[in-house]
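Hey forum,

I'm writing up a methods section and want to include a predicted complex as supplementary material. The small molecule is calcium ion. I've pasted the protein sequence and the SMILES. Can someone with a working setup run it? I'll credit the forum in the acknowledgements.
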Amino acid sequence: MTPLLRMAALVVAALTVSASAFAQSSLTLPSTAGVVNPDGSETIGILPMGNLSLPAECQACITVDFNDLGPEQVVAFDRYIRLGLTIETSTSGVVEGSSNDVPCDGTRSIKTEPFIGPFLLRFPHGVTSVSLDAGDIGPSDSDAITVKAFSDDALATLVAFDIGFLPQGAPTGCVRLSVQAPLIKAVEITSDSVYVLSSNSASGVSSYPNSIFMDNVTFEPAP
Ligand SMILES: [Ca+2]
Ligand SMILES: [Ca+2]
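Reply by user p_vandermeer:
Happy to help. Structure tokens for the complex are below, copy them as they are.
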């Protein structure tokens, strides 16, 4: 099968299963829920929020909660530069505010558009720790989220990493991930995201790389 044909087959399979899964889920979801697609694509819905604790007390820490953003407002890479943070995606897309106040704590978070990430945070003055919340609207694909910290702008020297996992079908929610090192200049957030339609068929697995939301980026400036 050519790559194009295989892609077409995947799309058809995804649409077929999405339709049947939605028919089932619409019977059981609370009436406040919106359309929930069982895949990795962005979904609009009003769903229960996670209850993540606040970041650990840190006198010198700076937190960016993105609550200053409007729905789908595009975030200039240097919007938070005066706080010592820049935000970009390594694709040709943009970073923008979430459509609704969905993951991670019921307030505005950020996503990429198109929804294929990943996120790249840079700290021009250097930091010693970074924590963040990352997750997705559910139930949808699984998200194996990796946070990698680098001591250089070229992303050549990995100095710390953290991993979190949201299984397929998990409710709307986020995991809090953190990295620490003597000097961090850049942090990349990626996610291997897949939706298994049929475990006994190669064409039954759809991939939605980096389909995650992010919120509450907290960092401690280097001394
Ligand atoms: Ca927020
Ligand atoms: Ca996802």
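Some notes you might quote in the supplement: The CA atoms of residues 128 and 183 lie 5 Å apart. The helical segments are 3-28.
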